[in-house]
Amino acid sequence: MQNSFESIVSVLETYRGRDKVLVGGVLSQRSGESSQLGKSLLLLSAQLSHCRVVLRLFDDLSMAAYSADYGLGTTEEDSILRWMSVLNNVADQLYYPCEHIAWAADAALIKGKSDRWWTLSTVLWGTSLLLGILRSIRIILKTKRKVETSGREGHAYHREGAVSSTPELRRQIRREALTVFSSVADLCNAIHWMPPGFLWAGRFPHWLVGLLGTVSSVIGMLQMNSSEERVST
């Protein structure tokens, strides 16, 4: 009980954690727009969305530091994973200035329309999600092969190291699978927010957008909790 409480506190101590809790819960409501409760929830959702945009104004440098540290991923043995990660970092890095310009245009800080910048930032977000999904799938496939190899070596040679590494490999598979589910949910919403005419853009009802957001939020909280537990051990 105490560990669960501490995990919730740890999540809420970051604005990203608060974002997952609040937005996931708010958008999951199925109240119609015509009801007062529905209108209030939509207004609250809009304010939370604006808050997230403002907080992300300060994320450029941290993202740039991460991208610079990763570079071209020369330490990554798998060339496909390496270039997926590099392209993912490029998409993430370009996302922030596009969103900043869109926000500044909406706030009348600069002249011009924000629509194209919001569209571009959504495209970059969707691209990042798609690359992340493909990357996680490849990691899962590679890790499964390692598990099979470890199992064969363990039975054949009784290698203690090979046997003991299998549980950790299986946990990695589960973590990557959760990442895939979360990113797919976000990607569905990203496409929904694209300009009309692109796939299912604009066709989702509010409750479905909220459900997908909640699924992503819950998975994100589970992953953050899992990360905290690994650090504590």
Which assembly state applies to the chains in this document? Answer: single chain
Structural class: mainly alpha
Number of strands: 0
Q: Give the overall pLDDT as a whole number.
A: 77
Distance between the termini: 17 Å
Helix content: over 70%
Strand proportion: under 5%
Q: Rg to the nearest angstrom? A: 20 Å
Shape: globular
Protein name: Peroxisomal membrane protein 11C isoform X2
Pfam families: PEX11
Subcellular location: Peroxisome membrane
Organism: Chanos chanos (Milkfish)
Keywords summarizing the entry:
single chain; 233 residues; mainly alpha; globular
Describe this structure in words.
The protein is mainly alpha-helical and about 230 residues long. It has one domain (about 45-155, about 165-230). Helices cover about 80% and strands about 0% of the residues. The protein is globular and about 60 Å long. Residues about 10-20, about 25-35 and about 160-165 have low confidence and may be disordered.
Chart the SSEs and their pairings.
Layout: H1 2-12, H2 15-27, H3 36-55, H4 60-70, H5 79-106, H6 115-157, H7 160-192, H8 206-232
GO biological process, one term: peroxisome fission
Pfam families: PEX11 (PF05648)
Subcellular location: Peroxisome membrane
Structure summarized in a few sentences:
The protein is mainly α and 233 residues long.
